[in-house]
């Protein structure tokens, strides 16, 4: 029994020594899912310090860009880069589709966001699924880039399925579109169609969809 206790103590001591080496901590953290990293930064000061000083970890967390921001050229074609979508966006119905635009087939990343609003719903901040609302890490999540490398512009189509109308708009960010900027934009779109408090309705909720199209430059085209 004493031997088992000694072995356990030895393993614990060895583990502690490993975690005290910043390079090893960085390698361990890089193996974890992005969402877990935002939680683990609150576990201890050593882990937090490693994550703040590691450019590689910040890039994996979509907090720092991998390469220059992708911009539309004069002919509407991006350089040949492959876009990686932020895993937070996969909370939604994430899919890749080939869409026709100006008679040319262009491949887009499509993020479909479903939002159900009850009757009598007034202006309310858009709740981005996956964000830890009201927590200390919320601001970190808001600074996450939507793609790697960062993309300069996204086209947004808002569909009010109750009224059958659509609202097309675009969001531009010179240093790259972030989750926070897109969330704020969606908040403004949703608020235009929300019923004011006290409004009499049919008793049924309204379902509204937002579709964000991000161009994949692999086949060319623009958004």
Structure, explained:
This protein is an alpha+beta fold and 223 residues long. It has 2 domains: 2-60, no CATH class; 84-215, no CATH class. Helices cover 31% and strands 24% of the residues. It has 7 helices and 7 strands. The protein has helices at residues 2-19, 22-30, 34-40, 45-53, 55-60, 138-142, 179-193, and strands spanning 84-85, 93-101, 104-117, 147-148, 153-160, 165-172, 206-215. The strands form 2 sheets. Strands 2-3-7-5-6 form a 5-stranded antiparallel sheet, with helices on one face. A two-stranded antiparallel ribbon has the order 1-4. Strand 2 and strand 3 form a beta hairpin. Helix 2 crosses helix 4 (45-53). The longest helix has 18 residues, at 2-19. The radius of gyration is 22 Å and the shape is elongated. The protein starts with a helix and ends in an 8-residue tail after the last strand. Mean pLDDT is 64; it is low at 73-81, 91-107, 115-125, 195-207 and 216-223. This is F-box domain-containing protein. Residues 23-52 form the F-box domain.
Question: Could you write a compact summary of the structure shown?
Answer:
By secondary structure, the chain is of the alpha+beta class. It is built from seven helices and seven strands; from the N terminus they run αααααβββαβββαβ.
Instruction: Give the beta-strand count.
Output: 7
Low-confidence stretches: 73-81, 91-107, 115-125, 195-207, 216-223
Calculate Rg over CA atoms.
22 Å
Kindly report how far apart the N and C termini lie: 67 Å
Q: What percent strand?
A: 15-25%
- What string gives the helices and strands in order? HHHHHEEEHEEEHE
Structural class: alpha+beta
Protein name: F-box domain-containing protein
InterPro entries: F-box-like_dom_sf, F-box_dom
Domain F-box: 23-52
Pfam families: F-box (PF00646)
């Amino acid at each position: 029994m004493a031997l088992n206790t000694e072995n356990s103590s030895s393993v614990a001591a060895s583990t502690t020594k490993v975690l005290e080496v910043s390079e090893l901590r960085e390698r361990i953290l890089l193996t974890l899912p992005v969402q877990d990293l935002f939680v683990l930064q609150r576990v201890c000061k050593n882990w937090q310090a490693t994550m703040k000083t590691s450019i590689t970890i910040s890039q994996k967390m979509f907090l720092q860009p991998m390469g220059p921001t992708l911009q539309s050229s004069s002919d509407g074609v991006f350089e040949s880069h492959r876009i990686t979508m932020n895993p937070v966006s996969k909370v939604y119905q994430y899919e890749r589709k080939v869409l026709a635009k100006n008679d040319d087939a262009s491949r887009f990343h499509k993020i479909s966001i479903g939002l159900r609003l009850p009757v009598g719903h007034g202006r309310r901040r858009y709740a981005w699924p996956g964000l830890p609302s009201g927590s200390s890490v919320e601001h970190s999540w808001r600074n996450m880039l939507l793609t790697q490398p960062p993309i300069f512009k996204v086209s947004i189509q808002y569909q009010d399925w109750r009224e059958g109308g659509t609202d097309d708009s675009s969001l531009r960010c010179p240093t790259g579109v972030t989750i926070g900027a897109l969330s704020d934009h969606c908040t403004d779109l949703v608020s235009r169609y929300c019923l004011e408090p006290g409004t009499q309705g049919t008793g049924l909720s309204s379902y509204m969809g937002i579709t964000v199209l991000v161009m994949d430059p692999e086949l060319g085209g623009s958004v």
